[in-house]
Design goal:
This protein is mainly alpha-helical. It has 16 helices and no strands. The protein is elongated and about 130 Å long.
């Protein structure tokens, strides 16, 4: 008897959904206001369902016509004049360098310097080279390699590194001084003296460079000139026991043992537990 009820319920549900969607569409509202509802004869519930279905079909057609009109209007009408930022959203690409800091040159440089400080030379060298691969003009990476090669006494590589740095930074006195150390390590004393003299000319207040120049001069048996440079270093750092010791040894080699004793005694006044100075003094006295 009630086999028609499921069909009726489906039709009524569809009609309700369409009515909710179309309530605010101007074209459909106008159509509804001008179209009177049909007078339904009393032939039972099935006849009512059929009429509602037909009416829903007409509303559906109006709905699709409205959608087509909106689509065309968006191309040529007011919607087309909207700024492009409303029609197309730009999503920026992520900054991969920020997301992966472990792959940046700065990260590898920090790791390399830490490894160098810990004297993990092989690891430090790999990291410095990694920095240069990512940033071929990274001055700190080349300078780090130079210090590393000096520490390992790889003087030939150190010379090559500092000469490369000086092409771009000829006014850097530290690079000239380090190049002098590398030349001295290779027993290229003339080149070492030239490099030290350049560094001293750029920064005459650096006492240690006079000592390094003096050691190079000593290697060439130029004791008088070496002693002169040691005295200059002591003028800048009067209480440096290490400089006094170097000067005392040079004075002994030159034959000035009495003056050497004076400096050794000064060392013991500054450092009473300096066993090397005491032993050397005893050798000269007895």
């Amino acid at each position: 008897m009630f086999s028609f009820l499921p069909e009726l319920l489906i039709v009524l549900s569809l009609a309700g959904i369409i009515a909710i969607v179309l309530r605010k569409i101007p074209g459909v509202q106008e159509f509804v206001s001008k179209t009177p509802l049909p007078k339904l004869p009393v032939h039972g519930a099935r006849a009512v369902a059929v009429k509602i279905r037909d009416y829903s079909v007409v509303l559906g057609k109006k709905f699709w016509q409205f959608l087509l009109e909106v689509k065309e209007t968006s191309k040529t009408g007011p919607l087309a004049k909207l700024p492009s930022k409303f029609s197309k959203i730009h999503i920026p690409r992520p900054n991969l360098k920020f997301l992966r800091p472990s792959e940046s040159a700065e990260f590898y440089l920090s790791q390399a310097q830490d490894s160098l400080d810990k004297e993990a030379f092989e690891e430090a060298e790999r990291k410095f080279i990694k920095v240069i691969e990512k940033d071929p003009h990274n001055e700190e990476a080349y300078a780090g390699l130079g210090r590393l090669y000096l520490s390992q006494k790889k003087f030939e590589k150190a010379i090559e590194t500092y000469k490369f740095l000086l092409k771009s930074h000829p006014a850097n006195d530290n690079y000239h001084s380090s190049l002098g150390q590398a030349y001295h390590g290779q027993k290229l004393y003339d080149q070492a003296m030239s490099a030290y003299e350049t560094a001293i000319e750029m920064a005459p207040e650096n006492a240690k460079r006079y000592v390094n120049l003096g050691l190079t001069l000593e290697a060439r048996k130029h004791f008088a000139e070496a002693i002169l440079n040691y005295r200059k270093a002591l003028d800048l750092e009067k209480n440096n026991a290490q400089f006094m010791m170097v000067l005392a040894e040079a004075l002994v080699k030159k034959g000035d043992k009495e003056e050497a004793k004076i400096f050794l005694e000064q060392i013991l006044q500054l450092e009473p537990t300096n066993h090397l100075a005491r032993e050397r003094l005893m050798q000269l006295k007895f």
